[in-house]
Design goal:
alpha+beta; 6-stranded antiparallel beta barrel; two-stranded antiparallel sheet; 2 helices; 10 strands
């Protein structure tokens, strides 16, 4: 007669812990990167009821808790399209992050059960501000998430001027080391 509950040497928690440790040993430590995650806090935010934007008064507007250090297993940046329009050239980059599920759950508890709540959060990576637009769980073992993928779009500098927490990023010169590629040094051997 066969047992109703098949058992074995290792249970699901052991296997999940082993998977998560493998992510840390094989991805995070040798080739991972870091990001800063800001969690949107609607209870401390004051926004325009129609346009969902912050006001111009200092200390009033949208508020994010953080920053929280977020270990990233894998980050892929994609140059956004720059279509010609009546506004001129305007394009934002896309960022694809692969995260350790429990790291994200430590920063923003409950986000794995309801990932849409973080679509108003902010992520800073490589000196640029991004807004998550898709948080997707990619692995689950016995009700524990192992991997989470976060797809983000870049917040342009002029979009950050009304959010006092991100005023430092509201200058077009912030971010990637633009000084390393100016006309004085570009092409020099």
């Amino acid at each position: 007669m066969r047992a109703y509950k098949p058992g074995g040497r290792f249970d699901a928690d052991f296997e999940t812990d082993s998977i998560l440790n493998g992510f840390n040993d094989d991805y995070q430590r040798p080739v991972g990167t870091q990001a800063l995650w800001y969690v949107y806090d609607p209870s401390l935010s004051t926004v325009d009821p129609i346009y969902d934007t912050a006001g111009t008064d200092p200390g009033v507007g949208r508020y994010w808790r953080g920053p929280f250090d977020l270990p990233v297993l894998r980050a892929v940046i994609t140059q956004g399209p720059v279509p010609n329009s009546e506004r001129g050239f305007y394009g934002g980059d896309y960022l694809h992050l692969t995260l350790h599920g429990e790291d994200l759950n430590t920063i923003a508890p409950g986000v794995l059960g309801n990932p849409d709540v973080q679509n108003r959060g902010r992520i800073i990576w490589q000196g640029q501000v991004y807004r998550p637009y898709k948080v997707q769980q990619k692995g689950i073992v016995a009700e524990r998430f192992t991997l989470v993928v976060v797809d983000c779009i870049q917040i342009m500098p002029e979009e950050a001027v009304n959010d006092t927490q991100f005023l430092a990023y509201a200058s077009a010169n912030e971010g990637y080391d633009a000084g390393a590629y100016n006309e004085d040094t570009y092409g020099d051997e």
